[in-house]
Design a protein that fits this description.
Layout lengths: L11 H21 L3 H21 L10 H15 L19 H19 L4 H14 L11 H12 L9 H11 L23 H11 L6 H7 L1
Helix pairs in contact: 1-2, 2-3, 3-4, 4-5, 4-6, 4-7, 4-8, 5-6
The structure holds zinc ion.
């Protein structure tokens, strides 16, 4: 196979150089990522780049040779968006609390949302309702019905009273996220002069509301998490 017999295929040297350049960039990002779960996202992007380039080559066009790549990428995307995926079902030997990684991630974002609203002056019940509404609006219903704020309340209390080991990493997520969160004044949410004392941004409540309502709508939690 060469370019003469496959005039549709762009120059092989250019194709190869393009792929190598892209992978060189992605491997740097991959190595530099300290968070093990964010690394998963970077690995998916790396795989996607290879698959995308292979797909350009004539023998791959119109075949199913790249389907496993796509299935894996869909799987990873499902983990990140919290939409659930059969491959994510844990091996469960009789436990009653089985939950997929993706479901746990949704809980973490819900708890983060409640936390930021409470910090912004919401009462607990208001915050539960706000997040339940955000869940429903993002298409995550409870057996076809609007998501109940009671579920949000249960998750929050499990977190608050440290009853659930799966939520143990929430505090780290919250701290990392808000420590680096820029504020509307070009400073940081935890270090802003807008309120006169140089500690908390005066716009906290508004930013918290925006964060809480958008957290569950974003298709790719992880990229958003890093790039904000
Ligand atoms: Zn500010």
């Amino acid at each position: 196979m060469n370019k003469d017999s496959n005039p549709d295929w762009r120059d092989q040297t250019e194709w190869l150089q393009d792929l190598v350049t892209e992978l060189e960039q992605r491997i740097k990002i991959y190595h530099a990522e300290p968070d093990v779960e964010l690394k998963r996202n970077k690995a998916a992007a790396y795989m996607g780049s290879i698959a995308g380039h292979l797909q350009e080559i004539p023998p791959f066009k119109g075949t199913d040779l790249l389907v496993p790549f796509k299935d894996l990428l869909i799987f990873i995307h499902s983990l990140e968006s919290g939409s659930g995926h059969p491959w994510a079902k844990p091996n469960n030997f009789g436990g009653t609390n089985s939950e997929t990684v993706a479901e746990t991630e949704v809980r973490i974002w819900i708890v983060m949302g409640v936390w930021s609203l409470l910090e912004g002056g919401y009462r607990k019940n208001q915050a539960y309702k706000y997040m339940a509404n955000a869940m429903t609006e993002s298409g995550r219903t409870s057996k076809g019905r609007p998501f109940s704020h009671r579920n949000v309340q249960r998750w929050w209390l499990d977190y608050e009273y440290q009853r659930d080991d799966r939520l143990a990493k929430v505090q780290g997520h919250i701290e990392n996220y808000w420590a680096e969160m820029p504020c509307p004044h070009g400073q940081l949410m935890f270090n802003c002069k807008s309120n006169g004392n140089g500690i908390r941004c005066a716009n906290w409540r508004l930013v918290a509301e925006e964060f809480a309502s958008n957290a569950l709508k974003v298709a790719n939690f992880r990229d958003w998490f890093v790039s904000r």
